[in-house]
Structures are given as structure tokens and as C-alpha cells.
Amino acid sequence: MRIISGQFRSRPIRALPGAATRPTSGRLRETLFDVLTAGHPEALAGSVWIDAFAGTGAVGLEALSRGARMVYFIESGRRAAAMIRRNLRALRLSAGYEIITREALPGLRRLEEQGVACDFCFLDPPYRRAEAYTQVLEFLSHSRLLSPTGIVIAEHDKHFDPGERKGALQRYRSLRQGDAVLSFYRG
After folding, report:
1. Which of 75, 92, 114, 142 stands the most exposed, by the fewest C-beta atoms within 10 Å?
2. 3-state helix, strand, coil in the chain (%, to 5)
3. Nearby residues of 15 by Cβ (< 8 Å), 6 or more positions away
4. pTM for this one?
5. 137 dihedral zone (left: phi>0; alpha: psi -120 to 50; beta)
6. pLDDT digits (tens, 9 = 90+) for 37-77
7. Where are the domains of the chain?
8. Strand ranges inside the chain, DSSP E
């Protein structure tokens, strides 16, 4: 697995062995960032990201490579969080990120208490945890974590639909690629 584009293009991303994490595929990451930049690669410059259920941190690492100012990686698994740290060290990054080793909701609450406002929040819970999508989307729909133009992107299985609307969040786009779907929400 590699970073697709930007400053760290083609640099490897390490993942834990086995099926403990399901990294977002390179093809799906490329689609995600193509949609968000819509032909304007500079569109992500200075942005703030939350990569919740981060796993390998592939999406957050891609965001940093493409000019994000700050990425908050939220990952409850200690081994996965250690792998994110290892990937960041391999890129020689010492700033512009924070790794929060907690479950997603407590991690998001902590960021909200700190006054963080993000431009993009990427959610990729284990596909079998349908309730995680509902809980996190409902929390985000009424939190102050999203900037006024903030976008939430949920990666999910093609057989599961997190819903058109969650509180103030409305899905405005959905893209399917293989067995995965990206649902885009804004308030």
C-alpha cells in the first residue's frame, strides 16, 4: 500500500498483518481525494482532518501528503495506533498531527472540548459495526467539530446504508467502488 499523490507520493504505508484492520484501498483513496479536490489539488491546503477509526491512518496520511495542516487520527487499537506512529516517523513528520488512542466517540468529544473545528471528517468503522455509523454521524450532526463548510465522509459496505440524513447532516453524494461505498454528508 502506498500514498497516492502529493508530497509523499509513492511512499509505502505499513499495515498490521492479518485482518485486524481493513485499510482503505489505494483506488478508493484516489477516488475520495479526486472528488474532494475536483481538479484543484490545492483545495486541501491548510485543511484540518479527523481520521476516525483510523486503522493504518492511510486516509489521514494521504491528506497530510496533499497539504492538510492538521490531521487527528482516532484509533482505539494500541497496535494500530503504534503502526500509525511508525508510518508518520517513516515520513519524517514531527508536527501536523495528533494520535488519539481512544474509541471514536470519546475521541471526538475530546476534540470538541478542545475547540477543534475540522474541514473533513473521515469515518471508517469496521463494517460489522453498523451502530458506530449511527452514533458518530448523530454526534457530528449536532457537534461543533465541523466547520461551517465541513464534510463528513463515511466509508461503508455496499450492503449497508448509513442513511440519507442524520440530524443536521444530509448525504449529498454517494460513490460505489467494488464492495465499498463512500457517502458524503454536510450540514
Report:
1. 92
2. 30, 30, 40
3. 1, 21, 23, 55, 56, 83
4. 0.95
5. alpha
6. 987 878 899 999 999 999 999 999 999 999 999 999 999 99
7. 1-15+27-126+135-155
8. 48-52, 70-74, 97-100, 118-123, 146-157, 165-166, 169-177, 180-186
